[in-house]
Amino acid sequence: MRIFSGIQPTGQMHIGNYLGATRNWVNLQNEHSCLYTVVDLHALTTLQNPKELHDASFEKVVELLAIGLDTERCALFIQSHVKEHTELAWIFNTLTPVAELERMTQFKDKSKKNKKNINAGLLTYPVLMAADILLYQPDKIPVGKDQVQHLELTRMIARKFNQQFGHTFKEPEVLLIEEAAKIMSLEDPKKKMSKSDGPAAYISLFEEPEAIRKKVSRATTDTGKEIRFNPAKKPGISNLITIYSLFAEESVHDVEKKFADKGYAAFKKATAELLIEKLEPFRQKKQELFKRELYIQEILKQGAKRARSIAETTMQDVRSKIGLLLPN
Ligand code: TYM
Fold it and tell me: Looking at the whole model, is its pTM more than 0.70?
């Protein structure tokens, strides 16, 4: 199977997008042909300071390597290094009804949050995402729940192109880790964990131990004192149980049993210590890799080369199918 996925460079990687997506990226590379990208062009849809964007793209690559991506087994590249993404996005723009884009939840949320910067790129964001994906003819796309609607649009665009110009694109499927598809905010467990809600809402994958202890102990919990998984009635504790269960690789039921006669404080303490144990190697690896700039650049060069070789083949087919006059 061919696997493709992407992540934005901006903001720290947190346990939400790790459990929901990138942990799965690492697991998949052992058995499949995987391509992963840091989507710097997508990040431009929200205002970015150029230096910060530049540094964040490098840092995101370092982070992905620190959590275990191995470029002997997958291709890792920066989206803007492969020009075909924007070319195919333009072509897909001409096939995508504006009304479909206007009903995207993420567009509506981001426009509400950012009233002063509702740019055209924010609206066509999912079209660029469709281009990212379809260029590589992948079978499965590992993502969290918030991206599923964009994946449906991607499939719609593939279908539409195929109907109009003849079969060209595979319709890729979403690969969702059901239990981890939506890790919630520590502050407001009714909202998804997100880097844009401020540092108390999330735990970075590279967080210092003391900060982990503090954040977990302050995480919003529910009335009562039982460690019971019930997302509707006990969203705070249920979210922590999910996090514990995924990091410990124990079932939710086993976690409930283990802490049956313990209170919230003991459970939170155990969760914090578990997170510290699991995340410490990532933090150390990140520090080590940060110093190896040339090595990282070489990885990105090789990754883009591999990606380009697939993307160019797809684009040659697309250009000729839609009737562009090809250069000699
Ligand atoms: P991004 O950078 O917001 O998030 C990266 C991945 O993490 C998942 N995720 C979560 N999963 C569970 N719980 C959470 N709280 C949580 N927060 C984030 C996301 O679903 C995602 O899989 N548009 C994409 C990037 C993108 C992309 C692509 C993805 C661009 N092109 C092509 C796949 C294929 C995004 O903003 O992800």
Answer: yes
